[in-house]
Amino acid sequence: MPWRRLARNRLSFAALGAILVVTVAALLAPWLAPYDPDEPDAAVALASVSVRHPLGTDLYGRDQLSRLIHAGRVDLLVALSATAIALTLGATLGAAAGYRGGWVDHLVMRGVDAVMAFPAFILALAITAALGNSTANVVAAIALTHVPIYTRLIRGEMLKARETEYAEAARTVGNRPHQIVLYHLFPNCVPPLIVQATLAMGFAILTVAALSFIGLGIQPPQSEWGQMTAEGAGYVVSGEWWLVLFPGFAIMLTVLAFNLVGDTLRDLLDPRMRGVR
Amino acid sequence: MSELLEVHDLTVHFATEDGLVEAVDNVSFSVRPGEILGVVGESGSGKSVTAHALLRLIRPPGRIVRGEIRFEGADLLALPEARMGAVRGARIALVFQSPRTALNPVLTVGRQIARLYELHQHVAPAEAWRRTIEMLTLVGIAEPERRARQYAHQLSGGMCQRVMIAMAIASSPRLLIADEPTTGLDVSIAAQILDLLRALGRRTGASIVLITHDLGVVAEACDRVAVMHAGQLVEIADVHTLFKRPLHPYTQALVRSIPRIDREVAMEPIPGAVPSLLAPAPGCRYADRCARVLEVCRRERPVLRAAGASHEVACHAVEVESGTAVR
Amino acid sequence: MGFGRYVLHRLLLVVPTLFGVTLISFTLVYVLPGNPALVKAGSLATPEHVAAIERQMGLDRPVHVQYWRYLTGLLRADLGESSSTGRPVLEDFRQRVPATLELTLASLLVAAAIGIPLGVLSAVHRDTALDHASRLVGVGGVAMPSFWTGLLLLYVFFYLLGVAPPPLGRIAADVVPPTRLTGLYVIDAAVTGHGTALLSALHHLMLPALTLGFAVMAPLTRMVRATMLEILESDYVKAAWAAGLPRRRVIYGDALRNALIPVITLLGVIFGFLMAGNVVVEMVFAWPGLGHYAVTSLVTKDAGPIQSFVLFVAVMYVLVNLSVDLLYGLADPRIRLR
To answer: Within the 169-228 window of chain B, which residues sit less than 8 Å (CB to CB) from chain C?
Structure first.
């Protein structure tokens, strides 16, 4: 592995560092946040950045920094669960479709086509609207819109791997189908899966933020970055910029970090997928 | 006798992620008017890079480090870029390897030729099209009017090659460089292409530089031959001398590996592999594969020296044995 | 005839996809909590009244029958009623589509006018400051949530600099909208020579179009750059240069022309991003389009608008992708003349 090139890619290391920081902050939120995120303090309502409140306060005097840190938990948790569910479901469907072929493949692919006929965000919107406003439903909605990505990926790998002599040998030895799939063919799929999942984390965060911004998904008093931005939106026209700047920046930074790491992983793990830099 | 083209100490380097690749190292040769010069060597020997350098087609990360290319009285490397446009295609033309990819997939082949007439000969589109059809006939394409309106993917490999040649000779260049014109074509088509090139050369009086890895092609079509190895020019002689009395160990190994003329061309591998051109060792780059290697070979790069009428070799062992060594 | 079969194949594929789209659409509404009959009847209605309305709406029938009613209703262009506006959804749609269309087109224009040249120049002058800047834009643009971009632009250009109007809609409150020809204020005002309306409409369109345009610019720039770089390395570009064509002409003629063809395929994907972005941007700027309509009706649990909006977007997405495929087939002679 070209360690030199990895080391030279300082930006990716910085990105990885950023992800670590955000994750740790999310995990240690209750101890890291200087104030209770829900605690109002009318005396300092709508205060700009200061030493006491580095990111300012909102209408109720709640410390924005603390809210930001706690909100990060929600964003990361939602993105992570949605990605994990989508990956598991999608990979299983893709493996079944790719390995079995026939009507299973046909059915799965028609389903994938139908889901992909909707722009992902619109579908997530519709599902959340249909199921109701709760964190779990948002996770389900995002997961569902991401399933096709993994299904197609695994199916593609399966189709390729199925024809190799490796698989033929495994079959001859007498391995049962699910054994073949799991132990022999799957390891090849892992690198592109990791790349895709990392990139998908970014999309998941953007989706949950956008959904919360328009009022679906995460409900107050639970804070979430998009929802915090929505709360601050009305104040931009009167000059209270800190309510909007910081949560949005947090979103951008986190998504950017995931994208950069995902791109680097793609370059390292799967040179075939490598486009032009 | 004045030469058409004189190349002195041409050196080309590429700055890659992994280091400096010295693709062409102090290559010197000349081309006489009306002759066909073969440039032969394994892949990676720097033949194509040399050809591209002649037309100053080398772009970053590649760089022509030093050298002189005298053509029609001027040093091409000293010419301003704006003047090169009048040389490329018009005075010196290059026929690329793999003809299909060297043709623009979204323009008709006729258009690709015709616009060169418009560019170099300053004629109107209608006249350019007429000349294009004429040229297509000349290079042996049947139904030229129909073919001219087609796209590269609709033509066979051989036809694409003919189209490329048509593009190259559209403006009657003095020098035609053909880079692997027969590679990838089946034997009978390859023979036709060679015949075509020779006929065109005779007809227009142009000189041809024929780049190939195939000694059979060289034997059949060339007047003189230059042998390259790992970016260095090791021997240059007229074709009979080269096959009868090759002097450089590499040339000897090449000639020894030629199959019979009645068999498909396929060279037998020479021991070892072409050394990496990435930060190469000083001295002769054939040293590690050479049966007659001397200690001086690894220290000093051998220089081309005369070894007979119209025969030059760059080899310390040859110098020592013929008593012409400097020390 | 190769191309004919290509077209036919594409058209046939569309049918089951549209079918699947209506199925998903219907399922989502079927699953929607709450009783539409109850909403329609009002909170003071008696149970018998609600039951009567249920029968009328066909809510007591089995699932597949309901789906059939839904499908046939669609074909009759019956999208139900909006309980908040009290009007047929189709009517509301007709009124709001032009606003979304205007925003979408303006954003596409912004994205293409900046994004494509940026990608091209970035590829031609690789590894220069311009290239790094454009790659930054590409990478950063994808990560910035569009609502954030919009709000930041509002802060800078409205609050700080005062050059943008307040986010209250498509045209200043004291300006009369132009006569409705296409529904697109900019075009209608220009055609009817209505100067004040034209200026006001453009003024109000500025920030929303920049926001949405910037959001979709990133993938466009990236792809143009990548394609252009690939083509600049290709043999035929080198061959054209070797044949004496000036380098400028080879780059901005041959290479660019070849690069723009695959970019066509990206238009379908961009349309999807635009539709998604519309929802958010319309909310930020109170732009009275379809996205705004869909979101505000969510608050009142009004099923009709949401469902119809989602269906509309999906159908448009399918049709746009189909057109893009066909357009690409026409543009690339390798497909057109198989």
So the answer is: 171
Question: Residue B161 domain-assigned?
Answer: no
Q: Is residue B221 in a domain?
A: yes
Any C CB within 8 A of B119 CB: yes
> Could you tell me if B16 lies within 8 Å of chain C, comparing CB atoms?
no
| pLDDT tens-place string over residues A198-224 | 999 999 999 999 999 998 888 877 889
Report yes or no on B50 lying in a domain. Answer: yes
Is A182:A117 a contact under the CB 8 Å cutoff? no
d(CA A228, CA A237): 16
Residue ranges of domains in chain A, CATH in brackets: 2-6+21-28+63-274 (1.10.3720.10)
Chains that touch C (3 or more CB pairs under 8 A): A, B
**If chain B, 327 residues long, is cut into consecutive pieces of 10 residues, what is the mean pLDDT of each piece?**
85 87 90 92 87 90 91 88 88 90 92 92 92 92 92 90 91 91 85 89 91 88 92 91 88 78 62 78 83 83 84 85 62
**Closest alpha carbon to C280 in A139, A247, A233, A144:** A233
Domain range spanning residue B254? Answer: 5-91+171-322
Beta carbons within 8 Å of B172's beta carbon, 6+ residues apart: B204, B206
| A2 CB within 8 Å of a chain C CB | no
Question: Does A120 sit within 8 Å of C314, measured CB to CB?
Answer: no
* A252/C230 CB distance under 8 A: no
Number of separate domains in chain B: 1
Question: Any idea what the Cα angle at residue C105 is, between residues C101 and C109, rounded to 5°?
Answer: 170
- Judge whether C307 is closer than 8 Å to chain A, CB to CB: yes
Task: Name the residue facing B98 among C235, C261, C333 (closest C-beta).
Answer: C235
Q: In the sheet where B74-75 sits, what is the strand order?
A: B19-31, B5-16, B62-71, B74-75
User: Is B137 domain-assigned?
Assistant: no
CB A86 within 8 A of CB A150: yes
* DSSP string computed for C199-236: HHHHHHHHHHHHHHHHHHHHHHHHHHHHHHHHHHTSHH
A-to-C residue pairs, Cβ atoms closer than 8 angstroms: 149
CATH of the domain at B251: 3.40.50.300
3-state secondary structure of C294: helix
